[in-house]
């Protein structure tokens, strides 16, 4: 007997023809010609070669809201979606890793302060969809070129402990001349809290005593970001 969805005269499942047409459209017209659910279908083809992936692609978008939300979702959250499996999760997270790697390479290619938009794009790709707070440090040399990018702390859904002494210690270990602090707000709202502002000023003071510049503290939300320096709070 044929699989569910058979409707071709040759006995082959309908989705096989759909896959061929989708691949052809992707190659001929480019990825911009595909809506988000069809791009997800293409990715899921590799993990589910004998299954119609359109229902799963649409279920993922309904659950996580956008293409970025899907590939940036936590592994446990993805695994909880019906019909997802390890291979599908790996396929999606590999796309996220690839995006982050490309953006990070672009940040490394030139002084950070002259490519600020790329820094923000990289941080958003890496952190905007994280379900818990992460505190990340970008360490820069004297020419403001990125020498290290490290997640220093992770916390709960709305709090990450930050220790100014540890920030300064790590900067000295790496020989960094400047740092950029970054953390995410899983709530989606990037507006800084009073605690964010107070912590930033404490770290800035600790860095200043040792000649290390705190260029900025970026807060990443799902729909945007906030710069404490840009807001006059640093």
Would you mind describing this structure in some detail?
- It is a single chain.
- The chain is elongated and about 70 Å long.
- The chain is built from 9 helices and 5 strands; from the N terminus they run αααααααββαβαββ.
- The chain has 2 domains: 14-99, no CATH class; 116-227, Cytidine Deaminase, domain 2 (3-Layer(aba) Sandwich).
- It starts with 13 loop residues before the first helix and ends in a 7-residue tail after the last strand.
- Helix 2 packs across helix 3 (54-64) and helix 8 (164-174) crosses helix 9 (194-208).
- It has helices at 14-29, 36-45, 54-64, 67-71, 75-79, 86-108, 116-127, 164-174, 194-208; strands spanning 134-140, 146-154, 178-184, 213-220, 225-227.
- With 234 residues, it is an alpha+beta fold.
- Helices cover 46% and strands 15% of the residues.
- The longest helix is centred in the middle third of the chain and has 23 residues, at 86-108.
């Amino acid at each position: 007997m044929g699989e569910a969805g058979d409707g071709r005269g040759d006995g082959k499942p309908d989705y096989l023809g759909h896959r061929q047409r989708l691949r052809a459209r992707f190659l001929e017209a480019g990825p911009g010609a595909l809506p988000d659910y069809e791009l997800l279908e293409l990715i899921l083809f590799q993990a589910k070669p004998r299954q119609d992936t359109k229902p799963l692609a649409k279920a993922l978008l309904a659950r996580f809201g956008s293409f970025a939300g899907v590939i940036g979702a936590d592994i446990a959250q993805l695994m909880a979606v019906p019909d997802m499996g390890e291979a599908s999760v790996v396929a999606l997270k590999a796309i996220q890793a690839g995006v982050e790697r490309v953006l990070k390479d672009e940040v490394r290619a030139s002084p950070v302060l002259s490519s600020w938009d790329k820094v923000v794009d990289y941080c958003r790709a890496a952190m905007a969809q994280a379900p818990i707070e992460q505190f990340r440090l970008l360490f820069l040399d004297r020419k403001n070129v990125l020498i290290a990018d490290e997640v220093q702390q992770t916390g709960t859904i709305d709090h990450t402990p930050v220790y100014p002494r540890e920030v300064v210690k790590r900067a000295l270990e790496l020989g960094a001349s400047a740092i950029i602090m970054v953390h995410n707000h899983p709530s989606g709202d990037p507006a800084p809290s009073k605690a964010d502002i107070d912590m930033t000023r404490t770290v800035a003071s600790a860095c200043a005593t040792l000649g290390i510049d705190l260029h900025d503290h970026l807060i990443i939300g799902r729909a945007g970001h906030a710069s404490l320096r840009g807001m006059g709070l640093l």
